[in-house]
What does this fold into?
Amino acid sequence: MFKRILIANRGEIAVRVIRACREMGIESVAVYSDADRASLHTTLADRAVRIGPAAASESYLSIEAIIDAARASGAQAVHPGYGFLSENQDLASACDRAGLTFIGPPADVIAGMGSKIVARRLAKEAGVPVVPGETPGDQSDESIAAAATTIGLPVLIKPSEGGGGIGMKEVRDAAQLASAIAQARREALAAFGDGTLYVERLIEAPRHVEFQVIADHHGHVVHLFERECSIQRRHQKVIEETPSIALTPSLREHMGAAAVAVARATGYRNAGTIEFLLEGTGNSARFYFLEMNTRLQVEHPVTELVVGRDLVRAQITVAAGKPLAWSQSDLSQRGHAIEARVYAEDPISHLPQAGPLLLYRQPSMPGVRIDSGVIEGSEVGVHYDPLLAKLIAWGETRDVARARAVAALRNFPILGIKTNIPMLVEVLEHPRFIEGSIDTRFLDTEAVALAARLSTEPPAEVLAVAAAARSSRTSAPISGPGSVRADLDPWTSLRGTRV
Amino acid sequence: MSRPGSERSLDVVALGAGRYQLIDNGRARIAYAAAASDTWVFLDGRVFVVPAGGTAVRRAAGDEEAALMAPMPATVVTIHVSPGQEVARDGLLITLEAMKMELPIKAPRAGRVTAVSCRPGELVQPGVRLMEIDYGT
It folds into this structure.
């Protein structure tokens, strides 16, 4: 087993991996940019190495800086987390050359699955259906537009390298093609350093259902069932759950077998996710291979809670060359889990927020897990992804898990910057979510109604609390009930008044 | 919520460390507050920003002034216009980027650019004026 692992990431996922290392008696090495000198992940690890300035391109995206840090700290393995360099085959091969173990699949598998052409060919060869689409060989704007017309509108135009919804544009009208192509290309270049575009038929109102797989170096491949991630905005997942209520046992079995078949066909190692689009419901529903994510997913905790396995521990164990401890028949689903992603963003305008966390208190209650990258006093910056924390609720049924998630979010105060918590509560209590009639367009369709419910003036009780907070800031120490000092602030007079 | 004119008693007890007990007609709830230049209040999953004056901050989405300010900390990617140039309503003025997203800043009304006060690559803070536009009369 490894003695020391470097975590080439930041935020909640770096914290998650550091905690797994600690449980396993492995030393952790954090890397940090100048913006993260005091961040939770930096201070939690056994060692921390500065890798550059705040700009991700010069720090968390610098393969050279990561490899240098691993060498300097004497790490034997590198865990890439998700995002940043996690799906970059050059990091995996640079690790190989430096004699470091990359905790993920081999570089050539990352390269293959990162290319939508190769991934689709492998899926087809494995007998798994795919969504119609292509990466035009001629990448001129005209040729991309022609490909879109051939496939038939509506289409999605997206970076051939990449994921996470970045640079992905939906086109329903030929008149929008030119600007969508130009914008997708700019965002692809900015995010991935490669402007190659892929055009795909847009499946209307699909569900996003993905399967977790893990493979060891001894020929074992298992799946850990599905996750449904249909609550998305701009292709960025917001709420995920497992099991998916759209899957019948027979469909689940077919999709699980397809996921394992794709993983086998690629020579996969370590943890990965096969994403499918699901059209229709019941046993007649059709599924299409969408892509494979060759890394740990943000939403892995819902699987961990329902299947009862630690995926990060398994990743490290498998990377160390040990066989998987589980066979497919050992794995089953128990209960239901829902993850809500807490983003630093305005719940109505969705604009990312930055600033200090004046107050940040995580709820602690039965069946609730929180994976967080921040603590009270942390400064949320503008340089990185706005994900602050993930709240995951488990219950014996979907209703129990949902009720726990709502209760926990209602008791998760974050002050100083706005977060999407009010929106998460509205979605989890929405009649359509409760009955499970959701698809990937849910947030777009409901956006106006959700925003209207969230745009309210502060009620009297909120103004009363604000007044008390302002006066207590300047008053003598609080000694007990009724001790909020009445000073010149007119709002203090709300205390005990009848309105 | 109370009906207009109905009687309602509202009591707030500071519990320390930003926690407040709110007793609303005998029913107790916990709220959280943090006072900076504005006062932030969390109650039942909702967050409100109450300025010192006591009225809530309203997002000025269609506000002409706000449209030419950076709405959040962001990097200026491209400036699409130059001083003296006429711009149409909704014409693209500046592209900002924050947290992996492009954010187009468009002209709220037709007018003429009189000054550009940012440059590409610059990190701008919320409320910082990016550009001056003369909307005529």
About this structure: Confidence is low (pLDDT under 50) at residues 1-5, 54-66 of chain B. Residues 111 and 137 of chain B are 10 Å apart (CA to CA). Residues 10-51 of chain B form one domain. Chain B touches chain A through 53 residues (CB under 8 Å).
